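Good morning C.,

I know you're traveling, so I'll keep this short. The sequence:
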Amino acid sequence: MPLLGQSSFRRLLLTRILLFSIPVLLFGMAVTFRRIHGNLLFAAQQNLTESAIRKADAILASLQSLQTSLSLASQTEALRQGDRPQALQLFQQLQSQVPSIRCLQLIDIKTLAPIASTCGNRAIALPSDYAWPTQITPNNPYQVNTFRLNSNPPYRIPQNDQQIKLDLSMSVPVYDNQGVLKYAVSAYAV
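The tokens, ready to paste straight into the viewer:
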């Protein structure tokens, strides 16, 4: 029979087991949570990287589409002749086909004044964006770099959309039928 104040063997054994097993159990849980946390961070990092790559590919495709549309537009007779009503009609058509275009302008290279514009007479490109050769061979219109990209346009059009993906201006030259640089087409895209 145990004396008063003495613990039984069972109580003593249970206390010792608990004293040693609870810290081991807590340490094991901490290690497990740390591994899970590390795995979750790694998975999140991979997902962010893949998402950034997909978004960059989408932006590149959008830029190439804009470049192609502007290059094709610069080859039309309406723009080569500087015909304001036909240019505005072509610009409206382009804006309906390429939703990222917010503004289009046909610029006279000599005066740097807009001939036709869908957003007013304020320039959406810098004069340095119009630095192309003044003469090309008419049978080879693709011998020049046909576009200039400005990621910091001088004039920004306010947007209602809070998630702006692009904010840039792009310009392409317009040569007449003799290969003389006459105009430029500038687009403001978001």
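Safe travels,
E.
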